[in-house]
Every structure is written in structure tokens, then in C-alpha cells.
Backbone:
């Protein structure tokens, strides 16, 4: 028997990386650790006893600044006590590309546009997106708008439906799945709900500030470069999946195009990229047609074609995190070398290197237990 220890990091990584890995390995009788409120995402209901420690450690949701190795040690200890003969496994990146999980999906809830008004408890460049203006603008044009996500990590905005109003107590995912399945178009940032939309093949638009951002690393949290994952969404989604760039006006224009005159049609983007949309059999005047392959979308408009390459740009194009100045670094080192968590020239409380905690040399780093 296998016990899958719960993932307690970013929701987007859960959807895109952890769940496919888990679904590929799970066998009946295994035990799953995970958020019981997200049971619909798993092949069997998660065991709540493996989530209590995480809920206590992150009462307001995952906060990457508070990642601690101690939590995983504690989870292993609880699992060993409950299932002494089981094999304990935790997700680790292995480079494999697992199939999409075969979720049992709930009944669609019909709505024109679904947005995920993401608001994290920590400073994050994505938090500032003007969702309220977008929702107001969409509704003023007569489109119904639904809010996907959880009430604790979303901006409160007047809308026609909210995921959390469609869920029973103890469930924090079915409402989002219902909205994504019923949406005519989904608009998200490069986020977990965006990955969920691609998982259920919801037609989707993914927001970025500038063209090319969707393929790069961007400094979205404390200046830490983070790889955008549009390519992963595009690869999963068999429906419309396009990046859009800019703010509210550009988004409303993209939604208008998607809802009023866009169709996804069969065809090879490479073969059609130099031909006019009017040459596509069955095309109607004024239509936008989209042809897809795994890594590309060809958007064919009467005004011309746009070839969208979804593959990430491998060369890092953004600057790395800013270094701390000498005085700051020196102060931090003095504190660290006197700390009982300092061992082998490193902070043992810093957890995953991706969080860049306990790094005296980086301006944006913090002590994971608040000493600096
Ligand atoms: S970063 Fe904080 S916890 Fe880590 S060694 Fe330094 S003072 Fe201790």
C-alpha cells in the first residue's frame, strides 16, 4: 500500500504537476493526502488526518514565505504512525509528462465569462490586477460573469455567480469546476485556475502584461523569477487557449472576439500560416478562426494571421533577484551564525530553494522564522 503525502505548495503546481503524477500511480487501497475540500480533484477522497497539520500551519492558505521542512517531517511521522507498513511517497519533479487526470466532472453551470479574481495573502505582482473594473465592464456589455476560486483567496466583486455559492460545506472546488465547464470563455492569470481550465478543456484566455511574457520567467513574487506556464495550459487544452496582453480594455476586446466571432477549426498551423482566413473551407466573412497544434495556435483574422508559439523561451530573459547590499548581508550573517537553525553554512529552516528564504545574499529574501 502506498500513502501519497499531501502537496502543500502552490495550487497551480498541484494541478499541473502533482495530480497527474498521483493519478498515474494511484491504486485502489492506497491512501491520498490532500485537502479534503478538493476531493473532486483526486481519484479517491483524501484522508483528512494528513491535512490537519497543513491547515494549522497555513490557516489563510499556502504562503510560500512560510515553507518549512519541519512540516514534511511531521507529515511523514503522522503517516508512519497511522500506516506503519505503507510506502510513503511525496511528489518530486521527475521530468515525466503524465496524462491529464480523468476527473469525474460535475454538472456545468452556464455563464458567459468566468474570471478568477486571485488575491494571495502575500505580496505578489498578480494581486494587483483590476478585476473589479473588468467584471464591471463585462457585465455592462450584457455578459454574465462567474467568479472561480475560493472565497478566501479572491477579491470580493459583484457578479452573477460565485464558485463558493455553488458548493456544499466542506467542498471548495466543485463550484469552480462547474463554472469552468459551463463557461463560454474563461479569463485568468497564469495561475492554478488557469491550469484547471485547461484540464477541463474550457475555452480560455490567459492574461499577461506584455507579449512574450507568457513564455518567460517573470519576477512576480518579491522579485523572484518565476517561469510562466502558458505552454503547459496550451498543451493540455484541446479547445481555444490564447494569451492576451494588456489591461481591462484589451481583455474586454479579446472576450468580445472570442464570444462573438471566433471558432476553433481543424487544420495545421504550419500549413495555413501564410494563407488568408477566407481560404479556409466553411469560413464566414468577419470570422476569426483558430487552428491548433500541441505547441502552436494560428489565429486567422480578416486583417491577417497571428502565429502563437506556446513553447517557453529557454534562455532566462529577466534579471535575477537583486543582491543584498554589504551592510544588510553582514547583519543577516551575524544573526544566522548565532541561530540554532544554521548548519553547514546554510539555513536548515528555509525549505524549498524555490522560496529563496534564508538567503543573506538576496535583497528580497527573508528569514523563514522572522529573525530578519
Ligand atoms: S535565516 Fe533565520 S532561521 Fe535561518 S539560520 Fe538565519 S536566522 Fe536562523
Residues:
Amino acid at each position: 500500500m502506498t500513502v501519497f503525502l499531501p502537496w502543500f505548495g502552490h495550487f497551480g503546481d498541484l494541478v499541473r504537476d502533482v495530480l497527474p503524477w498521483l493519478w498515474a500511480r494511484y491504486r485502489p487501497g492506497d491512501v491520498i493526502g490532500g485537502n479534503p475540500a478538493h476531493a473532486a480533484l483526486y481519484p479517491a477522497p483524501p484522508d483528512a488526518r494528513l491535512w490537519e497539520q497543513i491547515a494549522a500551519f497555513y490557516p489563510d492558505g499556502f504562503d510560500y514565505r512560510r515553507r518549512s521542512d519541519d512540516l514534511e517531517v511531521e507529515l511523514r511521522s503522522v503517516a508512519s504512525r497511522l500506516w506503519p507498513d505503507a510506502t510513503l511517497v511525496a511528489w518530486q519533479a521527475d521530468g515525466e509528462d503524465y496524462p491529464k487526470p480523468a476527473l469525474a466532472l460535475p454538472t456545468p453551470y452556464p455563464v458567459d465569462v468566468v474570471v478568477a479574481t486571485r488575491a494571495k495573502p502575500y505580496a505578489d505582482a498578480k494581486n494587483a490586477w483590476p478585476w473589479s473594473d473588468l467584471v464591471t465592464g463585462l457585465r455592462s456589455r450584457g455578459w454574465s460573469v462567474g467568479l472561480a476560486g475560493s472565497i478566501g483567496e479572491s477579491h470580493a466583486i459583484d457578479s452573477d455567480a460565485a464558485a463558493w455559492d455553488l458548493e456544499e460545506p466542506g467542498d471548495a472546488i466543485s463550484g469552480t469546476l462547474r463554472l469552468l465547464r459551463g463557461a463560454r470563455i474563461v479569463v485568468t492569470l497564469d495561475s492554478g485556475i488557469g491550469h484547471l481550465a485547461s484540464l477541463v478543456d474550457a475555452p480560455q484566455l490567459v492574461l499577461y502584461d506584455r507579449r512574450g511574457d507568457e513564455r518567460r520567467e517573470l519576477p512576480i513574487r518579491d522579485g523572484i523569477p518565476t517561469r510562466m506556464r502558458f505552454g503547459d495550459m496550451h498543451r493540455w487544452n484541446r479547445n481555444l487557449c490564447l494569451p492576451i496582453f494588456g489591461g481591462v480594455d484589451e481583455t474586454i476586446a479579446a472576450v468580445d472576439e472570442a464570444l462573438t466571432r471566433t471558432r476553433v477549426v481543424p487544420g495545421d498551423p504550419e500549413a495555413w500560416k501564410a494563407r488568408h482566413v477566407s481560404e479556409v473551407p466553411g469560413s464566414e466573412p468577419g470570422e476569426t478562426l483558430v487552428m491548433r497544434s500541441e505547441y502552436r495556435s494560428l489565429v486567422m483574422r480578416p486583417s491577417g494571421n497571428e502565429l502563437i508559439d506556446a513553447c517557453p523561451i529557454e534562455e532566462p530573459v529577466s534579471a535575477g533577484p537583486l543582491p543584498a547590499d554589504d551592510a544588510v548581508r553582514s547583519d543577516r550573517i551575524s544573526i544566522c551564525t548565532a541561530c540554532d537553525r544554521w548548519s553547514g553554512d546554510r539555513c536548515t529552516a528555509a525549505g524549498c530553494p524555490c522560496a529563496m528564504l534564508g538567503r543573506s545574499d538576496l535583497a528580497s529574501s527573508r528569514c523563514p522564522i522572522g529573525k530578519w
Summary: The mean pLDDT is 89. Residues 11-25 form the longest helix (15 residues). The two ends are 43 Å apart (CA to CA).
